[in-house]
Amino acid sequence: MVNLIVPASAAPDQDGRVLAVTPESAGWEYVGFEVFRLAAGETLQRDTGEQEACLVLLSGKADVSTNEERWNEIGSRMSVFEKIPPYSVYVPSGDAYNVTALTDLELAICLAPGQAEHPARLIAPHNVGVENRGNGNMARLVHNILPESQPADSLLVVEVFTPGGHWSSYPPHKHDRDALPTESLLEETYYYHIQPEKGFAIQRVYTDDRSLDETLAVRDGQAVLVPEGYHPVSAPPGYEVYYLNVMAGPKRTWKFHNDPDHDWLMPR
């Protein structure tokens, strides 16, 4: 069995990190992802090196600075399930960031190769594209934090809210071939929260030839790796499911291919 679930640590490490995905740990080339939980007054400081970063304030408030910029008292939600767009900060490669928590803070660090082509900037809630995607029990709320229409070198970042009894990343789709203009190659991570926390989500990850075919029960605070294949998500009745997606690949564009068996579900 392939281990696609990345659990959170029982306690933060000395930097406040509770979850980490690196290209080395995932066995791929592009996407890195970390989650930090900081108490009020605690600080995280990092150089970006050869990677660009998107710092997503999942919950809580903070002061954030880079080598050239500073933003004080950012953060607008204390839980992802408030469903308002988050504050985020884009930091290019060759830069650094300093985060000081003003409240309890859950911070996601999304990472991918950078070329230092774009300056650091604040992505405020009003800069986040909000859309209701799908219909019926495929309806979900999407916050486009760092879509391909906004400047970055590699990263694509989005968060999705799936009501109980609904499906998302559905109909099943994939983006694992560098075959533009019809499909792009993008590695992807899913980072989950469940409300109530005792619940779970179901995610399937499978390829056409079923050489990869895993059905996962994912708990609150866990991440899932999607190295290839289709990857639909189900929220069981009674449990709302949130996930933060990070994608990156050789070309920064999201072109997906639906599973032919289920493509009939797409609106025509």
Automatic annotation (TrEMBL):
<dbReference type="InterPro" id="IPR011051">
    <property type="entry name" value="RmlC_Cupin_sf"/>
</dbReference>
<protein>
    <recommendedName>
        <fullName>5-deoxy-glucuronate isomerase</fullName>
        <ecNumber>5.3.1.30</ecNumber>
    </recommendedName>
</protein>
<dbReference type="InterPro" id="IPR014710">
    <property type="entry name" value="RmlC-like_jellyroll"/>
</dbReference>
<dbReference type="InterPro" id="IPR024203">
    <property type="entry name" value="Deoxy-glucuronate_isom_IolB"/>
</dbReference>
<dbReference type="Pfam" id="PF04962">
    <property type="entry name" value="KduI"/>
</dbReference>
<dbReference type="GO" id="GO:0102482">
    <property type="term" value="F:5-deoxy-D-glucuronate isomerase activity"/>
</dbReference>
<keyword id="KW-0413">Isomerase</keyword>
<dbReference type="InterPro" id="IPR021120">
    <property type="entry name" value="KduI/IolB_isomerase"/>
</dbReference>
